[in-house]
Amino acid sequence: MASRKDTLVRRASRVRRQIKAVANGRPRLSVHRSSKNIYAQIIDDVAGKTIASASTLDTDLRSSLKTGADTAAATAVGKLLAERASKAGVKDVVFDRGAFIYHGRIKALAEAAREGGLNF
């Protein structure tokens, strides 16, 4: 029987394979959620570089948030990421939820990024 980590890695690779097939050259908005923080970055897979990133560990957000592990923190990270992406000239992205279900903090981050001006 496969371990939990193996299952998560397999699910994340399945999601990324499907996303890369429909990306059409658009950068990928990748999200990672831990028990204490949430991280997001926009990655250009063609060049292999990170265009913009934000997390609850950023000094701008860390002081203003009560905790990095709730939907309010995810919303703040989504808005900050959308702002940084617009400065970098990115409008259209493909959302990569990884092995995480589109619910709760992941959904809050995605909706905040959409409100900030990202299209996906």
TrEMBL record:
Keywords of the record: Ribonucleoprotein, Ribosomal protein, RNA-binding, rRNA-binding
Annotated CDD domains: Ribosomal_L18_L5e
Pfam families named among the record's database cross-references: Ribosomal_L18p
GO cellular component, one term: ribosome
Function as written in the Swiss-Prot or TrEMBL entry: This is one of the proteins that bind and probably mediate the attachment of the 5S RNA into the large ribosomal subunit, where it forms part of the central protuberance.
Cross-referenced NCBIfam families: L18_bact
Record family assignment: Belongs to the universal ribosomal protein uL18 family.
Subunit structure: Part of the 50S ribosomal subunit; part of the 5S rRNA/L5/L18/L25 subcomplex. Contacts the 5S and 23S rRNAs.
Protein name, per record: Large ribosomal subunit protein uL18
Gene encoding the protein: rplR
